[in-house]
Amino acid sequence: MWGPPCCEIIGNFVVENYNKRTNKLKHRGPDWSGLHQYGDNYLAHQRLAIVDPASGDQPLFNEDKTVVVTVNGEIYNHEELRKQLPNHTFRTGSDCDVIAHLYEEHGENFVDMLDGIFSFVLLDTRDNSFIVARDAIGVTSLYIGWGLDGSVWISSELKGLNDDCEHFESFPPGHLYSSKERAFRRWYNPPWFSEAIPSAPYDPLALRHAFEKAVVKRLMTDVPFGVLLSGGLDSSLVAAVTARYLAGTNAAKQWGTKLHSFCVGLEGAPDLKAAKEVADYIGTVHHEFHYTVQDGIDAIEDVIYHIETYDVTTIRASIPMFLMSRKIKSLGVKWVISGEGSDEIFGGYLYFHKAPNKEEFHQETCRKIKALHKYDCLRANKSTFAWGLEARVPFLDKDFIRVAMNIDPEYKMIKKEEGRIEKWVLRRAFDDEEHPYLPKHILYRQKEQFSDGVGYGWIDGLKAHAEKHVTDRMMLNAANIFPFNTPTTKEAYYYRMIFERFFPQNSARLSVPGGPSVACSTAKAVEWDAAWSNNLDPSGRAALGVHASAYGNQVKAVEPEKIIPKMEVSPLGVAI
């Protein structure tokens, strides 16, 4: 499989081709290259060293080297798991070293014991079998392919296997593949996955504490780190919680208590101003990066090559993140904490204003979480790893998702007449008058999608650039040239042409999601408002009548302090 800290291949493979394939993914793991061969099985690895940089090189082994593992990811509960394995000897201090030993004790049924983000391949040389697994939500990227010669290929990116496989596809999150069964099975089975409507009352303190725990556990590191701070609710909460609890962690003992924050945008972008205010409020060392529309346009081809999609929303947001990641890595930082996942869990996208009832609201959040690996997780993982930088996402912590998705969705519903805006339950959970986390107007700032928040001129500039390269005549033939996921705009057509040049295989185009969307909705949610079918654009500004700067419908923003009612909280943390 060829990938980040992890890149392994299993199958018939010629060693002479090793450098050719690992070079395609060297950006993901510039610190170490490893290769292990057993018979016709090959496990290769490119490492980005974060925990135990000195001795944690991969592949990793059990005591007698009969079990071999290559892993991309972080196992946050590895210290607790080591205590459950008293009879085992660990070769390294790597958090991923527990995987081989857990397999020895529990066979294939240990994956749910892992608390973290991961993609791994494990080879058992005793019977020449292997298993592959991907984390619950798909924070880490992973693909699987099959060769005509009977080989099975696993890679962290498409480019690691697309030239060698007859068919390949995204490895499903929360699943395990066993060579013995030659099939997938889902190991992650939370109650929300069935989309049944939960009924637990909203407990703001329980939600707050679950998120704080998710952030703190991610401060596991032996290298410098920082936080991405756009000034929106999600990244601001991540930064505020990190800054509040950093001093008590081992990370602070190694790297000090001063947190570094990073933001990117066009000159005058909404995010830049808000991020600077938050940084000053919580006391981070703030780094503000500017780019121009032309800088972004110049990076389009590189971005599409790295993120391996032609989805318009993902490309729009990936370009500034890609440019920022390069700057961050140049400062010596090796990983960052980011705010992906909150909008999916809490219905934060502006189109959720039109959810007709709590049942459809909840079902849409379930659909959005299940699709994250194709959109925001893909963007966050590949835009950062393009420069050897890792992104950690506490909103997608398994335990936090369990708490948040068990809340009766009636509490998540957006009800303007009651002063409840999008993500109200999350905002209220951190609305602490005595020890505030954020300025009130930041805590209640309207949702901005990342591709909008970096500057409204950004999307307009991309559309104008595509207009110069895609003619009306070309669009007339779009359905014939691209019968699958036919591009309906010139911007989409332009990205598709670039993608097909890099990844011409049918499996590659099938790996990208499609369908109508407004303000990042699923196709199902487009049905919530008849007017949306004539205004299909993934930008948040396409949510006409909702976004304060909606296309062709400028409306005055409501001051959040005037619409958010006070709530009393019982000693048990239950809202009254």
UniProtKB/TrEMBL annotation:
GO terms for cellular component: cytosol. The record marks E340 as: Important for beta-aspartyl-AMP intermediate formation. GO terms for biological process: asparagine biosynthetic process; response to stress. The keyword Plastid does not apply. L-glutamine binds at D95. Residues 7-182 form the Glutamine amidotransferase type-2 domain. InterPro entries: Asn_synth_AEB (IPR006426), Asn_synthase (IPR001962), Asn_Synthetase (IPR050795), AsnB_N (IPR033738), GATase_2_dom (IPR017932), Ntn_hydrolases_N (IPR029055), Rossmann-like_a/b/a_fold (IPR014729). ATP binds at L228, V264, S338, G339. Keywords: Amino-acid biosynthesis, Asparagine biosynthesis, ATP-binding, Glutamine amidotransferase, Ligase, Nucleotide-binding. GO terms for molecular function: asparagine synthase (glutamine-hydrolyzing) activity; ATP binding. This is Asparagine synthetase [glutamine-hydrolyzing]. It comes from Glycine soja. The lineage of its organism: Eukaryota, Viridiplantae, Streptophyta, Embryophyta, Tracheophyta.
